[in-house]
Amino acid sequence: MTRTISEINEKIKKGKAVVVTAEEIIDIVKEKGTKKAACEIDVVTTGTFGPMCSSGAYLNLGHSKPRIKIGGGRAYLNNVPVYTGMAAVDVYLGATAIPDDDPRNTVFPGEFKYGGGHVIEELVAGKDVKLIATAYGTDCYPRKSIETTITIKEINEAVLFNPRNSYQNYNVAVNLSDRVIYTYMGTLQPKLGNANYCSAGQLSPLLNDPYYKTIGIGTRIFMGGGIGYIVWNGTQHNPSVARSENGVPRAPAATIAVIGDLKQMSPNWLRGTTFTGYGVTLTVGIGIPIPILNEEILKYTAVRDEDIFTQIIDYSDAYPQRKPDTLGEVNYAELKSGKINVKGKEVKTAGLSSYAKAREIAETLKGLIKKGDFLLTEPVAALPSVESGITFKPMPSKPVKKK
Amino acid sequence: MSKKRIVLTFPGRLVDQPITYHLIKDHNLMVNILRANVTPKEEGRLVIEIGGNKKDMESGMNYLNEIGVHVQPLTQEVGWHKDRCTQCTACISICPSGAFVVNRKDMSVSFRKEKCIACELCIPICPYRAVEVNF
Prior knowledge:
CATH class of the largest domain in chain B: Alpha Beta
Number of helices of chain B: 3
Number of helices of chain A: 6
Structural class of chain B: alpha+beta
Distance between the termini of chain A: 65 Å
Largest interface: A-B, 32 and 20 residues
Order of helices and strands of chain B: EHEEHEEEEHE
Number of domains of chain A: 2
Oligomer: heterodimer
Radius of gyration of chain A: 23 Å
């Protein structure tokens, strides 16, 4: 059995496509087998809703009268600094940026109540956002400062452009030390007091297409409640990690860079997020459709939580010191049961990526495709896979030569 | 025997009074202190679970009213903003009283107000600031 994306699109347009979620496919395959299921099903939808730090939006603010060249100057949105190293009124608002006067971790652990992720959420919600900018002034851009409010409707472009989202698998974080630690994987209690994980497991997009045979550059996706596209592999893309027999990586592997019109998106699927003692970020909702081109592709989408393994890492020492040590492997069925066994001790687990919301995204995308409101795209280029030989390089440590 | 969780708020003049002792000794009540907070020059707060027969409970409450202690049910003091919650389950492993529970079948999170002891451990843990305790 084989089918093409254009054949699937024809069925979608006629409202005849058979679409199920990556959760529903598991029971269907159990009941019917992969061959029959592959004949019947056209598309499997996936979803994920988790904190993704490498996120942000570029905005074109429009030109004031007289004009101001914010490029090369300084600018703030709701007191959060934005990157201005671009053209006169283009800025990039990063998810992890925090106000200059935030005390950070001076009083430990810092609260990090507000930052770039929260500004993005407020912009998307249509709220007024305060813009303050200063510039050096030129003949063509004479103005040197501005203070005004903007809304997403009034500015020219607002584009969410995330250089790394939707990690294919992620570590389980624990703490072997004797003090509480505050990390991007949440607060970790001493002496294996808890274990935090962050993946939608069997619903997660890249875990359902482990070798990126359908998900590629140009793939249209559900992004933050609107439509987006995959534009490149994400940063730290690492397809060469160890894999199980089913092809699924046993450690953090592939990532994707995604782009989409922020004006179409919704605060339900883009949420400002705080990690005490660590910082702020943005939680992003992403859903990716997988066209069932053949039985092999379908087989990948039927992956279950118990078939997806990941590494347990000590975030008090191994992670910060970049030691390769792992405390063992665990699968997502165990993680979702609420407790796992680490070094002979029963440890309570908690998630940071919302499985319930991931399901809602997969269901929403399924609905859009069934109604004919979302057509699939042919990738224009593949994401680098195992044969690319790409690995995740550390930062070099070299003496700086004096000139 | 009935049991309830209450918040006692008492003015500065009462902070050195053995109120819990009187509730136990004079009114025959079972008192389990869940949380106590006394700030100099400010009022004191005591979160307790109190239990006893109807008559003893009534006399205990009358005693608290007479001496000027304000009594409120604990459930009025804690709030879970369901719209802010993303069902991520980060709160589940930290909650000591089982007020936050996850339905393992669909991984949805719910909050059982009556189980909450207002320990506030979940407040810095929640990445979406979905829990509020009004102390």
